[in-house]
Amino acid sequence: MDEPFQLEVACLPPHCPVTLRSTLCSEGNDLWESFSHYVSDERGRVNVSKDDSLGGSYIGCEPMGLLWSLRLAVGGRQNIRLRKKNMQTPLVVDISLFDGHTIDNFNTQTALAMTTMERWYMAPGVRRIEVRENGVVGTLFIPPGPGPFPALLDVWGLAGFMEHRAALLASRGYACLALAYINHPELQLGSGMGISYFQESWKLLQSVPQVSADRLGLLGSCFGAAIFILMASELPDISPQCLVAINSPSGFFKPGEGKYLEKMKRLLPEPKLDANGHLMTKDAILAVGIDLERSLQAGGIQCPALLIVGEDDQCVPSIESAQRLEAQMRAVGKGHLVTKFSYPEAGHLIEPPYHPVMRSSAFNLPGQTVTMLWGGVGKSHAAAQEDSWRRILEFLDKHL
């Protein structure tokens, strides 16, 4: 899924306008689609890796634009994220070629040509093991071979449990435990597990025979990143070799003993809505301000830390949190341990490469479902996903 592909069209008339359309049917039976307009060269060829799209879902030279610009089709469900739940099957993407510059009614036209691609998160030989041990709920992915492998705990934000990043990291040589901690039917506390749960998860990962126990790291997004910053900074029995934090709110919230959604809702004033009625929680968090009793003190971190920041994050104050963490580390002489990459026009949902860019989507709060504004602008966010993933892999390779 994180590898680019090359797409070429041949045997067209010279200077012929054509439309390329990609479609994907999700596991929830939702249709995602994207299209782009091209003109063949004097040899009757189109090379998506080199040629500019003249219109459609994106403009300009975007070799992977037909993937990252996928949107939910008109007439179907809206405001939902593309989530791959079964890692043992691929995402299947169909790409079709149409005559002329078309913008709709594709199903009434006959395609000139078509190809199908399979996009996998799990490489051949990766093992997927469901974990239900000592109260820990998650999925462990182990690379091919006997090991021992460097390993990671992988946690997302308050939207819940996801496996795809862990599967992809295992495909890159890391044993990875994707950890559930909120909104999961098998957890004792569905509204969010406390810090002791993550300590137990750490011990469990260390005990896996195929894992090199002295080469463990932490990788988290949003509230998951804040939890891992707390673990690395304040828990003496947790000694990661490195830490990756993607759009963390750690400067404004200190994870406690669970019930995270309820606590956030109680602490925040009435969040603002944008012109489309989408919830903007970042400004509400900033309005509360920094409460030193409630915010995280990161100066205790002893390992290299990589911070990934989307400057258009409309969900949490990730820029301010990263700046605060940097200042705390500098104040105790550890500024050299922090590396930060900050991306203009990138939003909150920084996924692995080529994942569809979602500026907003539905989100479940206690007692209600809202449309959350995540932020992110088209190709800028897509470029951030591609670059940050490369930076993350380089960082993990260096420190694990």
Automatic annotation (TrEMBL):
The lineage's top-level taxon is Eukaryota
Q: Which GO molecular function annotation, any one, does this entry have?
A: fatty acyl-CoA hydrolase activity
Indicate the segments forming the Acyl-CoA thioester hydrolase/bile acid-CoA amino acid N-acetyltransferase domain, all copies.
Answer: 2-133
Q: Any idea which residues are catalytic in this one?
A: C222, D313, H348
BAAT/Acyl-CoA thioester hydrolase C-terminal domain ranges (all copies): 195-400
Q: Name one GO biological process term.
A: fatty acid metabolic process
The record's section on PANTHER family has: ACYL-COA THIOESTERASE 17-RELATED, ACYL-COENZYME A THIOESTERASE-RELATED
| Family affiliation | Belongs to the C/M/P thioester hydrolase family.
- This protein is called Acyl-coenzyme A thioesterase 4-like
Q: Which organism is it from?
A: Erpetoichthys calabaricus (Rope fish)
Query: Gene encoding this chain?
Result: LOC114656075
